[in-house]
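User: Design a sequence. Structure:
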């Protein structure tokens, strides 16, 4: 089963290093609050630090790892080398050193951890004042105000993620 969530920075919007750090901290908090559903999957220095985080569901309740990664790090010299490394800079699913994310996605198969992924992305929208375009295979867009419908002229149709629960496998778990 597929079902993906997609996110990218809006055209012309650049995230600051501080915004990325705030987003990662918020995602860490959400992961901690939902540790019965998700866990950090990769714990290497490059995958888990002030500017990078990942998580997945447990065992069969996981699918693809959710990654919120950037090229930021503590060492300015390493960041310059990253910027010069064309192969890595071409990788559009990392937030670049100029603060842009070309596009990232995560297949959740609507499993229970899909809920946590969406909570994190809505929180990221709150922190960055809707700097991202976040959509799903369900045709909805996720913004800091809630869930918008493209079919409903882009108006917010659900103010809370929980209001969408009957559409997903995780809704059955939480009902």
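Assistant: Done.
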């Amino acid at each position: 089963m597929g079902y993906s969530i997609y996110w990218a920075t809006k055209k012309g919007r650049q995230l600051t290093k501080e915004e990325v750090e705030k987003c990662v901290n918020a995602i860490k908090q959400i992961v901690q609050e939902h540790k019965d559903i998700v866990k950090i999957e990769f714990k290497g220095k490059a995958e888990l630090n002030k500017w990078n985080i990942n998580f997945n569901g447990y065992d069969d309740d996981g699918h693809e790892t959710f990654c919120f990664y950037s090229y930021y790090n503590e060492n300015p010299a390493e960041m310059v080398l990253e910027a010069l490394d064309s192969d890595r800079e071409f990788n559009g699913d990392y937030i670049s050193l100029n603060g842009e994310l070309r596009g990232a996605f995560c297949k959740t198969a609507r499993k229970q951890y899909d809920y946590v992924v969406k909570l994190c992305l809505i929180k990221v929208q709150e922190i960055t004042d809707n700097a991202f375009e976040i959509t799903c295979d369900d045709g909805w867009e996720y913004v800091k105000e809630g869930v918008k419908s493209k079919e409903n002229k882009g108006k917010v149709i659900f103010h809370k993620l929980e209001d969408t629960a009957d559409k997903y496998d995780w809704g059955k778990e939480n009902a």
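The longest strand covers residues 4-9. Strands lie at 4-9, 38-39, 53-57, 66-68, 104-107, 132-136, 140-143, 146-149, 156-158.
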